[in-house]
Amino acid sequence: MPRLFVALEVPRNAAMSLSLLRGGLPGARWIDVENFHITLRFIGDIDGRTADEVVDKLDRIERPEFQLALSGMGSFGSKKPHSVFAGVTQAPEMYALQGEIERICQRLGLPADPRKFTPHVTLARLRNARTEDVAHYLSGRGNFHTAPFTVNRFVLMSSKESVGGGPYLTEEVFPLYEAGGGWDGADLRDHPV
Question: Motif range for HXTX 2 (predicted)?
Fold first, then answer.
């Protein structure tokens, strides 16, 4: 069974902006543009029945679409950096969606994610990168940002067992409803029964 995770896709314009950040960091293994994403919940290796239950429950989520932008840069692993990433703007709707997905996974018996949710797009995995090189790379790119974009769906993705970075495959797509597009009963008021 492939490794599963729930994610938000990065639209093409934002992905192209991210691609311009590639290079200039010794020891970096750059993620391919088509594999950029924002992980909402890592699920891991699960059996087919559990995967079907996850899909069924995720399909019942009803949340509005929302706006996001990518902003700022950082690295994970303070003493020994292991990856560099682009940050994601704070969107309450994204945190609410992520929280609901986390609760669903725990109700299905999956262990809680031990890491605090830190929305980001991984740009590169690092091997034997010097802290000074990472700091220098980040210092020249700290003002990175993209134009806001609309998130109108989330996806269940899979990855082959590897050291991370793809290739990833979209297994299922879950639409978010159009903000302000909810039913308000207006047509009943206009057409009395």
Answer: 120-123
